Amino acid sequence: MLSTEEYDFVRVVQRFVDSEVKPVAHDLEAGDVYPEKLIDGMKELGIYGLAVPEPWGFGRVSAACYVLVTEELARGWMSLSGAMGGHTVVAKLILDFGTQEQKDKYLPRLATGELRATMALTEPGGGSDLQAMRTVAHAQDDEYVINGSKMWISNARHAGLVALLCKTDPSAEPAHKGISLLLVEKGEGLTVSRDLHKLGYKGVETSELVFENMRVPAQALLGTAEGEGFAQMMRGLEIGRIQVAARALGVGRAALEDSLRYAQERESFGKPIWKHQSIGNYLADMATKLEAARQLTLFAARRYDDGARVDMEAGMAKLFASETAMEIALNAVRIHGGYGYSSEFDIERYFRDAPLMIVGEGTNEIQRNVIVKQLIGRNPIPR
Ligand SMILES: Cc1cc2nc3c(=O)[nH]c(=O)nc-3n(C[C@H](O)[C@H](O)[C@H](O)COP(=O)(O)OP(=O)(O)OC[C@H]3O[C@@H](n4cnc5c(N)ncnc54)[C@H](O)[C@@H]3O)c2cc1C
């Protein structure tokens, strides 16, 4: 359950989306324009500080509240929810695993959005098999020297802080024991080499990062011990996957709301199209699955708030919500007929945005691997 303050906050974000985001999203998307003004509005609302408690921030909200805020933003424009998702994961990583010095140094500025953060896991050679990564940070005196490259890094140009997953011991066996997280501030040796052209998720850049003999202080290591980065990031991805599920809820809801309106306005054979059973059935299924996806996502969020390990629950939420959003977006195209295919309507945007939630933050194939591993682990047969 959300507190009264949290409900009020979700309503404030809802109004922001209706009055500030919805009217401009179509044009920003079409021009692939970075939404500077909307990001400023999000900063003012405190959206970049949702994970940061006092004394560094203004008070952390529950994961369930975070889900509903994300859903609202994505309902207006999925790109906005992408502009704060990775940032929140990094803030949580610092909060959960950072030293006192790291918390004091970064959390206050992350909370206001003055400093924005991104996470860099994926490499040109692959994103699913993280243990095969090739980016290496060698300890040298009291510094790390970083070499390698990262691919598909969202907000790379606008983020001042990169949570970099890399190998500090490339020879470690098993490989994950040689993986660490470094908090890297932009500087000499780090280049945002190019932006990647995308099907959707416009306006917010996704880029390649190249590290060439970049030197960072030893204090950049998240926490105090090397070799813990993989486990730290897996915990971070739990909230990341809940957030991606929430983005899918927003895209699905926008597609459903537009379809409900259109199905009442548009007539054929002398009646509104929702009265044709096929169209009515689409709407009924869309609403039912969307609500099921929301409940699954809130379930994962509540378990997360309880402090439980939720890789299975977050994986289920992300898997189901993203596949549901894709299905709803496709049905919205069907309901809108030719106009569903027109770039003058928002429907085609939902259809282009939905696949990101299937691929991002660990593909849905990987989510199924996580889910089944947990299922078998929790239900072993006696031997
Ligand atoms: C717009 C966008 C933004 C992104 N933002 C970020 C970001 O900010 N930071 C970041 O680090 N990454 C980011 N990513 C990367 C994203 O997380 C990866 O694309 C994703 O994890 C998949 O990695 P890959 O693309 O290398 O595919 P691969 O790992 O090469 O996978 C290819 C296919 O093989 C399947 N596959 C691979 N291994 C298995 C297996 N063991 N079992 C079953 N199937 C398998 C995959 O599911 C997929 O279908 C972003 C991606 C996109 C598209």
Walkthrough of the structure:
This protein has 383 residues and is of the alpha+beta class. The protein has three domains: 4-116, Acyl-CoA dehydrogenase/oxidase, N-terminal domain (Butyryl-Coa Dehydrogenase, subunit A, domain 1), CATH 1.10.540.10; 118-226, Butyryl-CoA Dehydrogenase, subunit A, domain 2 (Beta Barrel), CATH 2.40.110; 230-378, Butyryl-CoA Dehydrogenase, subunit A, domain 3. The chain contains ten helices and nine strands. The strands form three sheets. A four-stranded antiparallel beta sheet has the order 2-3-7-6, covered by helices on one side. A hairpin with a 2-residue loop joins strand 2 and strand 3 (143-154). It is globular. The mean pLDDT is 98. Bound molecules: flavin-adenine dinucleotide (FAD). The site of flavin-adenine dinucleotide has 24 residues, from strand 1, strand 3, helix 9 and helix 10.
